[in-house]
Structure formats: structure tokens, C-alpha cells
Amino acid sequence: MANLIKVDKNGTKYYEGYVPCDRCNGEGIYYIGVLNGHPLPSYVDSGVCFKCGGRGKVVGKWKEYTPEYEAKLEAQRRRRAEKQAAEWKAKQEEAERRAKQEEEEARAEAERVKAEKAKSQYVGNIGERLELKVVYKFSAWYEIKNLYGYGMVTHYIHTFKAGDDTIVWKTTSPICLEEEAEITLRGTVKEHSEYRDEKQTMLTRCKVIE
Asked: What is the model's pLDDT at position 39?
């Protein structure tokens, strides 16, 4: 039996009474699984639901709207759903626009890098001793096993720019230079090579001249 608690200004009626137990779904028994095609009650107290005490019902509250107010709420829900859909669509379009922009920027950057690499030409002749004004760019390193003893040996790859031309010095000696530092580098041309579509002049027996 339901008891009417109140009626608000919208005509909504608030009731209190017995409702199906939400723990056992009104069964009065709490099942934990299925055994041989049959529901398996909890092993505690033969599955009697603790919340409703096996009655299958508990005291609860609910509302009853008038048809007019229900229609008003439905209209509000519909407007809210339409607004959320529009916002989601706008976010999707913005995400797609940003992704396209980033893709175009990445493509433009790749073309720019490719064009910069294409400017690099070989410097000097194999075996020639050169003294060049260069700009230090960066260094990379890797380790290999020491062939003449224990431990590992660190090899460095120092990269410089002489104008548009790329100069590379492979050595076991580190250098302490700030990026974009301008120095004079003296070394012997070991080989002319190409790395990732960029012509590089490899030097050996180099010396940094302050």
C-alpha cells in the first residue's frame, strides 16, 4: 500500500511504500550464479536476502508526474539531448580540423626538411685535409663491446653545418660544445656518403680549433 507524502506545485505526487528489493530483484533470495541450469543461492543463510529479509520488498519512495509535466520534462530531455549531440558534433569537427591542420603542418615540415637536406653537397676530396668554419648541431652516441679488452666503448657522431653542407665526425672522443656554437674544425675527408637523402662529408682525425 502506498502513502501519499506530498503534491508539489507542478502537480507531482510523492509516494512512499513497498517496492521490489533492488538487491535480490524482489526474489527474496540472493543468487550468486547458475549451477546445472538452475540459479545458485548464496551459501550464507541459504541465500536469504539481507536487505529485505527474504520478503522481496523494501520501503521506498517514487514520484508520479502529471501528463502535462511529463511532456514538459520530455521536451527538456529532448532539448538537452539535442544540445549534447550538437556539442559532440562540434567537438568532432574541431578534432578533425586540428588533425587535418597538424597533418598539413607535418607534411610542410617534412618538405622543408627535405628541401634543406637537398642543399647539402660534398666538401673536399677523399684524403684532403680541410679547415672549415662550422656550426655545431648535435651529437649522438652508441656503445659497442671493446674488442681489445673488457667493457664497452662509446662512439660519438658529431654533426656540424658548413653553410648548407653537412659535416660528420665519428669518433670515440666527446666534445663539450653548446648547440649552434661556431667553431673551426680541422680534419681529413674520410668519405662522401648519403644519409636519409642528405649528402654528408665524413671527416676523421679532427681537431676543434678555438
From this structure: 86
The residue out of 45, 64, 83 marking a domain boundary is 64
Instruction: Give the SS3 label for residue 32.
Output: strand
Dist CA 188 CA 130 (whole Å): 6
pLDDT along the chain (210 residues), means of 10: 90 95 93 87 89 94 94 96 97 97 96 94 96 96 86 94 97 93 96 94 92
In terms of pTM, does the model score above 0.70?
Answer: no
In angstroms, the CA 17 to CA 4 distance is: 9
Q: Which residues form the domain of 34?
A: 3-64
Sole residue written with cell 654533426 = 159
Say how far residue 124 (Cα) sits from the centre of its chain. 46
- DSSP codes of every residue in 75-106: HHHHHHHHHHHHHHHHHHHHHHHHHHHHHHHH
Residue 144 cell numbers, joined: 659497442
Q: Judge contact between 122 and 135, C-beta under 8 A.
A: no
The number of distinct structural domains making up the chain is: 2
Give CA–CA dist 103/141, Å, rounded: 31
